[in-house]
Amino acid sequence: MGTSMDFIKKFMDMSQMVSHEKGDILFREKDPALFFYVLLNGRVKLGVGESDQRVYDVSQNGEAFGWSSLIGRDRYSASAECLEPTKLLKTDSEKLTKVLEKDPANGIVFFKQLAATLGNRLLEGYKRISGPQK
């Protein structure tokens, strides 16, 4: 079950379509978490630490990132850098949070979808650090 068309319209109305070039930094780890992003096309590297070690590439159209801004964290947990020309939906997290709070049914669906995305990333990370299976 997905979110309603009314919710999708509200989300689109509050979001801004932005374009970035290869090498553009969207945010750095520990920057204030102000925006939530959805990839329209392109590729974004998420990295952590002073060396900005790659932890994940956002590469699937419709994939979300910048979730720190929606779960009560005031700082991003990673940095985000465009690896190629990239188009995104950029959404003010405060506005989105208000819409989600006013529409609990769609809010639950939204957060379930976000949790599934994060769960998949976590599983991918487990596979990467466990090395090749024999």
CATH architecture level-2 label: Sandwich
Give the spatial strand order of the biggest sheet.
1-8-3-6
Number of helical segments with 4 or more residues: 3
- The chain-level structural class is alpha+beta
Would you report the number of β strands? 8
The fold-level CATH name is Jelly Rolls
Q: What's the CATH superfamily, by name?
A: Jelly Rolls
CA-based gyration radius? 15 Å
| CATH class group | Mainly Beta
Envelope shape: globular
Count of separate structural domains: 1
- The share of residues in helices is 25-40%
Describe the structure.
With 134 residues, this protein is α+β, with helices and mostly antiparallel strands. The protein has a single domain (5-128), classed as Jelly Rolls, CATH 2.60.120.10. 35% of the residues lie in helices and 30% in strands. The protein has helices at 5-14, 93-102, 104-130, and strands at residues 15-20, 25-27, 35-41, 44-48, 53-58, 64-65, 79-82, 86-92. The strands form two sheets. It has a four-stranded antiparallel beta sheet with strand order 1-8-3-6. It has a four-stranded antiparallel beta sheet with strand order 2-7-4-5, with no helix packed on it. A hairpin with a 4-residue loop joins strand 4 and strand 5. Helix 2 (93-102) packs across helix 3 (104-130). The longest helix has 27 residues, at 104-130. The chain is globular, with a radius of gyration of 15 Å. It starts with a helix and ends with a helix. The model has no long low-confidence stretch (mean pLDDT 89).
